[in-house]
Each structure stands twice: as structure tokens, then as C-alpha cells.
Amino acid sequence: MGGDFGPSVTVAASLKALTKHSHLKLILVGDETVLRKALVDQSYDQSRLTLQHASQRVEMDEEPAQALRTKKDSSMRVAINLVKEGIAQACVSAGNTGALMATARFVLKTLPGIDRPAIVSTFPTQSTKNMRMLDLGANVDSRPEALVQFAVMGSVLASAMDNIPNPKVYLLNIGEEDIKGNEQVKQAAQLLNQLKSINYKGFIEGDAVYRGDADVVVCDGFVGNIALKTCEGVAVFIAKMMKEAFMLNWYTKLLGLLVKPVLNSLRKRIDPGRYNGATFIGLNGTVIKSHGGAKVPAYAQAIEEAITGVEKNIPERIRHEVEQLLKSE
Known about the structure:
The chain is of the alpha/beta class. It has 2 domains: about 5-115 and about 280-315, Isopropylmalate Dehydrogenase; about 120-275, 3-Layer(aba) Sandwich (Isopropylmalate Dehydrogenase). It is built from 12 helices and 10 strands. The protein has helices spanning about 5-20, 30-40, 65-70, 75-85, 95-110, 145-160, 185-195, 220-245, 250-260, 260-270, 295-310, 315-329; strands at about 25-30, 50-55, 90-95, 120-125, 130-135, 170, 200-205, 215-220, 280, 285-290. An 8-stranded mixed β-sheet has the order 3-10-9-4-5-8-6-7, with helices on both faces. Strands 1-2 form a two-stranded parallel sheet.
């Protein structure tokens, strides 16, 4: 029910995902009357797409604590409860990020050895591979020990989801030298240098993030969220400026037609919707956050991320890795 477009996007994206994946079953959680209206004239297998009524909805500007306390029958809460009960294997939502994280943490709890969950998502790079960054906003301020946990979880996720045997993990910093950065980052680096279970490579600056050297970039949620929003804004800015440049006159329009295949390829690579679907990592369950402004293809991509996360059994892999880490200390 959440996001900028609600069921008009989530229902259409769900039907698209069902068509692509014959083994997939989906439960649409929300106002049943609204959902049935969105499904009118749609052809689908009712054994694979079912409805779960929820009488409440968390608003996009609602305080997370208030939503957690007063919206116990919200679509968000009911969906996460289904994961807790084992009826569903993952939850995908485009709703209020703070409320989704608060609810998921309260209902599902964090994995043993994990103090705080984090938000992790995929970023494009200059190379053919992608990069994953965390935390993207779950924790505004993180202790060095939390950054180490993020690094471990990010490494496990990249290894499983992207099939990278030994992911290269970096700490985002204002310089690559050991003397650079605040005490939080310096202490995290010292702790990571002592870990043998992950391939920690040191500091990385913001301008090198998209070069393709890193598989995982770790930072606190304040910095990560700014990086995410800046990346999305730059992608939209470039697309807008290029469109305006090619629409100046008949000559530029002709040039635009000639280079259209190249422009389409570039637009596809930097399109934020292609990377939609941030994982709430560190929880006893799979929860995926879609961008609130996602259209149908982007929301379908968030569902894809949930499917892969379930197939790769990410929470259990992280649990095992953290257990091994704690035993070695």
C-alpha cells in the first residue's frame, strides 16, 4: 500500500514477477477492497497470488515509533508478521523506510552477534560488475564495532548474491592514507585489519567508489544515505541534461537519433530503477525496501532481489559467518 503510487505499481509488478517465475507465490497485503479493484480484468493464477487484508496503513511521513505502537494491523506489520510466522519467506515494501526498519527489527529481531541491522543496496560501476554499499540509512551514527559487523555482512551478501568468492571490502573515507578520517573510521580499520575471515582492502574515497575496484563499501548510515541520494540525483541530472542538449534544434535532434542506441545503453546502466531493492541485512528474515518512487519495472526488480535473497538463504549464511567470527575471538 506504500510508496508514491501504491497498488497501481505493486500489483502490476507482482503480476510481472509471477509471469517470469513459475515457482513464485505472492501474498498482497493491504486493503482487500482496494487490492481487488486493482486486480479487476487481470488474468492470474489465484493459487499463486493471494490477498491478506490489513485494516491500517503507515503513512510515508509517519513517525516510526508511532507506527510501531499504533499500527499493529498495518499492511507493513502484517506482511512482516507473515515472515515471522513462516507463511512468507520475504517481505517487499515501498513504504516508510523508518517504520519498515523499526517494525522489522521489533518483529524479526537481529541475528545473534549483530547489534544493529543495516540497509545495503547495489550501485553501478565503470566495470561490468556492481558494488554493494552499506549502511544506507538504518543507523545515523555507528560505532566502530558496528562498521565491522556491516563489513562482515556485506562480504557474505556479495559472495552469495554476486557469486564473488572473496569480495574486496573497503571503508569509505576522506582519503586512502591511514592517518585520514575520524576516530570512528580509524578504529574500525584497526579492527578489520585483524579479521582473517574477510578480504578487507583499506580505505576508499568517494570518487573511487564507482571505479569498480570494490565489491563492498562500508560506511555509517548518515554518509551512506547521502551517497545513495546523490547517486540517484546525478543519474537523473545526466539524463535530463542529455535530453535537453539533443532537443535544441533539428541538427541536435538528428544527432540524437544517430546515437540513440548508445544513449539507451548509458541510460540503462545508470538508471536507479535497475538497482532498486535495498536489503535490510542482519535480521532473522528477508526484508527488501523498494524506493518509494519506483515504477513497475523498478518494483519488479525489488521482488527479484527478494527472490534471490531467499534462494541464497542470506540470513542463515550471515548467522553462520558471525558465529564463526565470535568463536575465533
